Amino acid sequence: MKKGFTLMELLIVMVIVTVLVTIAVPKYKGAMERGRGLQAIASVQALSDNLNAIYVMNDNTYGSDSQLTALPGRTKELGGNTKTDLFTYTIEVKTPGTISVTGERKNLGSSGYKIIFLNQNGELTYRCCTGYQPYCKLLGASKAINVQPIGECWSFQ
Prior knowledge:
By secondary structure, the chain is α+β, with helices and mostly antiparallel strands. The protein has one domain (7-156). The chain has helices at residues 7-57, 65-69, 133-138; strands spanning 76-78, 87-95, 98-108, 111-120, 123-131, 141-143, 154-156. The longest helix has 51 residues, at 7-57.
């Protein structure tokens, strides 16, 4: 009796492995993107909370855009030792009592998304996801009404 595998057995194993890889790789990529997005939501939330504390400590004012430029983390790259910058965080004064904190995800081909926290008068008033809708849905966003001054966006549930 010869030892070893027949050609048919090897082909069946190869087909099974191919099917498993075809199913697993997209799920893995989706889970990784969701993890990165949730990390960005947490980072933007922390930055937003810090700005609200600054608002309260500075006699109910965010100050000018030039004062915010000096804040640590005003424009901050997230990604550590990765080869690409995953998120860029920016702070923008919309009006004297309103400030926007945005985490923007790039390097997704022609698509990407933004996570936006809009602070007004020292309180978190709205957060949303704009851009490529499948990524926003992946983060648990759902369609939301128009919100000024952001425009149409997706709110997180």
